[in-house]
Amino acid sequence: MTKKSTFIIASLFSLIGFLALTSTASAFSAEESGCTRPTEKNSEQIENYKDCIREYKEKYREEHEEKVRELKREREEKKLELKENIAERCNLTEEKVDEKIEQFRESQAKHLERYEALKEKLANLIARLEENGYDVTELQNDLIVLEEKIAVLSEKFEAFVVQLEETADYECGNSDGNFVAAMKEAKDALAEVRTATLDVKTYYVETVKPDIVALRDQIRETSKEDSRMLKPSNSIN
C-alpha cells in the first residue's frame, strides 16, 4: 500500500471519528446527565432541573470540543509526518538519481574510450595491411559498421541521461504520477543502452574478430609459400 493510500485511509478514519463525536454530542440523553427530573409541577424543581441540564450540556460541549481539537491535532500531526516522509524519500531519490547519472557517465566514458581505442587499432591494422598489398575490403566494411554501432550506443546513452535528468523537473510526491512515469521512461532508455552495448560487443566478437583471424591465417599461409619459393634448390643441373 502506498503512503498516499495510507494517508487517504487515515483521513477517512479521522472523518468517521469526527462524525461520530458530532452525532454523539447532539444525541446525549437526559438520563446520562444525572439530573433529577421534577416529580411535581413545582417551579423550583423545574428550574433546578433546567440549570442541571444546562450545566451538563456545557460540560459535555467543552469535553466534546476538546476531543474534536485533539482529533484535529492528531490529523495535522499525521499530515505533517506524511509530508516529512515524502520529502525525505524524495530527497533520497533525487540523490540516488544524481549518483546514478554520475556512475553511468563514468562507466560509459570508459566503454566509449575502450571502443574508440578498438576502432583506432583496427583502422591502423587495415592501413598497414593495405600498404603491404593485402585485401582488406572485409575489414574496411567491418570498421564502418562498428563505427555506426558505437555511434548508436553513444546516442542511446545520451538519450538515457537526458531522460533521467528530466525526472528532476517533476516535484517528487506532488506531480500526479509524472515523476514515476519519467522514471519508467528512463529505465526503458537504459534498457536500450544495454541492448546497444551488447550489439557492439557481439558484432566485434562474432564478425570483426573472425575476419581478422581469417586474414591473419591468410597472411601466414602466404608467408609460408614465399618462404618455400625462396629456399635454394638441392638439385644440380
UniProtKB/TrEMBL annotation:
Coiled coil: 46-156
Signal peptide from the UniProt entry: 1-29
Alphabetical keyword list: Coiled coil, Signal
Protein name per UniProt: DUF5667 domain-containing protein
Organism (species): candidate division WWE3 bacterium RIFOXYD1_FULL_39_9
